[in-house]
Design goal:
The chain is α/β, with parallel strands linked by helices and about 300 residues long. About 40% of the residues lie in helices and about 15% in strands. The longest helix has 16 residues.
């Protein structure tokens, strides 16, 4: 399957909320010749990542849907946003993403797909804006309680340490050393599938341009977002599809199932656990995941609002 270069079609959208204008970068997947889209879908990446992760999957989805990928605030090319007092970081992100959707002119309910932390943002959007989300698709969702990665990011002193590391990365350092660091961190997350060299190069380019992305990794994990997801899951009314890798070493399946069980009490929800698949299933199996999503959209029931 071809891998779309989503940044070739990307542009910034100015969002004006509580902290002045913020630019969020979006990429609209070109429609294939003769395609008649059956709806619109927004793609939200994980932490740390960017829209680039969806290149192959977007190519498949674009055969049947109008697809837009977005860089979450503070990641990829999108501006940083400051935490808002008395509001969770998840809700701050959700409000900014929905404002970008509004700027796109999407007046009708749309499909929303998120991976990992992007799935957490997607869940928050579905809880805050139930009339806007037609279907919710969650890949490798962070779930509840917090998985080991977010527990580590919440340890006191981690954020200052990441700030020091970000400043250090601004200094000249051998690229092989940085590649080894990324590989050591990400290999367990990609397991049981190999970590692509091209993915490492892409992420290093992002960190070279914006070392503060490392700090944002800890920022979005602050305030116990996994407990917040459990508290707001009952407000989701859109039919929801959970897809999780059975071999996911970052987020065990039981964490995502805990959210599924809450959502399923109010609206139609399905859980697909894929054998032999890890956390980065949208990269290791983009065609399989995209087809699973399209098949579900074709047969999923209407929302119970």
């Amino acid at each position: 399957m071809r891998n779309l270069r989503l940044y070739d079609h990307a542009r910034p959208i100015a969002v004006h909320l509580d902290q002045g204008p913020v630019s969020l970068w979006v990429s609209q997947v070109p429609l294939q010749a003769g395609a008649k889209p059956r709806g619109r879908m927004l793609l939200l990446h994980g932490n740390p990542a960017n829209m680039h992760d969806f290149g192959a999957m977007a190519a498949h989805l674009g055969r049947a849907l109008e697809v837009v990928a977005l860089d979450l605030p503070g990641f990829g090319r999108s501006d940083n946003i400051r935490p808002v007092r008395h509001e969770s970081v998840l809700h701050t992100y959700a409000r900014h993403v929905q404002a970008a959707v509004d700027r796109l002119g999407w007046a009708e309910p749309y499909y929303l797909l998120g991976h990992s932390h992007g799935a957490a943002v997607a869940q928050s959007m579905a809880a805050l804006y139930p009339q806007r989300i037609a279907r919710l698709l969650l890949l490798g969702s962070v779930g509840t309680p917090a998985h080991w990665g977010y527990r580590q990011l919440a340890v006191p002193g981690v954020m200052p340490s990441l700030r020091v590391l970000a400043r250090a990365l601004r200094l000249p350092s051998p690229r092989p050393v940085r590649r080894r660091l990324v590989r050591a961190i990400m290999t367990p997350i990609f397991a049981p599938h190999p970590l692509p060299d091209e993915w490492i190069d892409t992420q290093l380019a992002v960190v070279d341009a914006r070392p503060e992305v490392l700090v944002n990794m800890a920022l979005v994990a602050s305030g116990d977002p996994c407990s917040q997801l459990a508290n707001t899951a009952a407000a989701i009314s859109a039919p929801t599809l959970f897809v999780h890798g059975a071999a996911d070493r970052l987020v065990p399946t039981r964490h995502a199932r805990a959210i599924h069980d809450i959502v399923a009490r109010r609206c139609p929800a399905e859980f697909h656990e894929l054998p032999g698949t890890g956390h980065m299933l949208h990269i290791s199996h983009p065609d399989r995941i995209a087809q699973l999503a399209l098949d579900w959209l074709d047969r999923s029931p209407t929302s119970t609002r």
